[in-house]
Design brief:
The structure is a homodimer of 237-residue chains. Helices cover 46% and strands 11% of the residues of chain A. With 237 residues, chain A is of the alpha/beta class. Chain A folds into 2 domains: 160 residues, 3-Layer(aba) Sandwich (Alpha/beta knot); 61 residues, no CATH class. In chain A, helix 1 runs parallel beside helix 6. The longest helix of chain A has 19 residues. The radius of gyration of chain A is 27 Å and the shape is elongated. At the A-B interface, helix 1, helix 6 and helix 10 of A face helix 1, helix 6 and helix 10 of B.
């Protein structure tokens, strides 16, 4: 699958730059512009693009809407959907998360499209695209800014485009034997501090539940175990 | 649970406005500002805030970082995490989606915090907060713009804050008997068009798989059924 981003008839250069930055943050590079505003290298588009000023913005192609619908499986994002199937222009729609699920494993060239700042896409444009995507937001104010809407959609599609994130593969959680060792040490601590014998089992259960929810790291477990051990030694001295 | 947003020592009024807009889009209202830039009602903060210019921005409180850590369960968002448990300042961390899961059902006052444009939070500040959140992004360029990062986190937390979205409760899918009716009509159509008898079962299966993936609406099914019926009648005439 390939994933291309198109911005259609944006007014504000800053929004184009914001979208280019989100593309780079989420591993995308192909930007198509339909009727773009002027993108001055010293202006807001480049100012908002972060490192995307170096490649995505200068390499963006200016194309027609029709060229995109001919070449790609097109998905247009709109805040306002229709309420039911009586109007097919904006219905049915998918959420960004549903779109990510649907596109996983589909082998086609997909173009996600973002429209004008105030009015989004025209109904004629929406009628030409293959899918409608809409971000669930507050009914009281569902209209997101163009750059923010694109950022959310590209974030949701990241598993299709980001090969490697900045995060470690997995958080290094303590193994169970280390955790059990800490529970034993905590038991010794209760004994050393003369915690009332009839209340010890309850305190141990409380401690087990707390650590069970926290999924401690190996280092956290080793550090706590050492702290309780030191306390025991101090008390014995 | 209550959810408050804090912006710490932002330089750019536009980013504060962007965050206020995302808050309103996702059903939040409490904004706290630590060392904010000047927010001129005729300037960028209000210009970027959309309808949040009417309430969230003018009602924002200026507070200290310490006041927030005392009053709230604080979560700071950072692009750059530590790789392992040798450094606890930024480790372990949760992703925004994990944070949303964790906070569901927790009855506490939570403050999600967003830091400076270039340097985010200081290590001293991070040491004071309760949790670290980090957005998974491309390892090649994981640093999001402040306003875009906040937009994604508030989007992920929307189920904690948005009572009702702009979307209909559910897409009106066709019931199975309507779909089976369409399959029968499609069979009649194959017969009426003299589709080779030995290939009909295969064509019916293809059609069943296509509709099975598309989850058609009631209206789509009725329309297609009508189209095939008309075609049969035209052929019979």
């Amino acid at each position: 699958m390939s994933l291309t981003v198109a911005v259609v008839d944006a007014e504000t250069p800053g929004n184009v730059g914001t979208i280019a930055r989100a593309m780079k943050n989420f591993g995308l590079s192909e930007l198509k512009l339909v009727d773009p505003p002027e993108l001055d290298p010293d202006g807001e588009a480049y100012g908002f693009a972060g490192q995307a000023r170096e490649d995505i913005l200068p390499n963006a192609d200016v194309v027609t809407f029709e060229a995109l619908t001919e070449q790609y499986h097109t998905v247009a994002t709109t805040a306002i959907t229709n309420e039911d199937a009586a109007k097919h222009v904006r219905y049915p729609f998918v959420t960004p998360a549903e779109l990510a699920d649907e596109l996983t494993g589909v082998d086609s060239d997909v173009c996600v499209m973002f429209g004008r700042e105030r009015v989004g896409f025209t109904n004629d444009e929406l009628a030409m695209v293959d899918q409608i995507c809409s971000i669930p937001a507050s009914a009281a104010y569902p209209v997101l800014n163009l750059g923010q809407a694109a950022t959310i959609v590209l974030y949701e599609l990241r598993n299709l485009s980001v090969e490697r994130t900045q995060h470690p593969d997995a958080i290094d959680r303590a193994n169970q034997s280390a955790i059990e060792g800490l529970h034993g040490q905590f038991g010794d601590f209760l004994e050393a501090t003369d915690h009332p014998e009839e209340k010890r089992a309850k305190a141990q259960r409380l401690w087990r539940r707390l650590l069970g929810r926290a999924h401690p790291t190996g280092r956290e477990v080793r550090t706590l175990r050492g702290l309780f051990r030191r306390a025991d030694q101090k008390i014995e001295d």
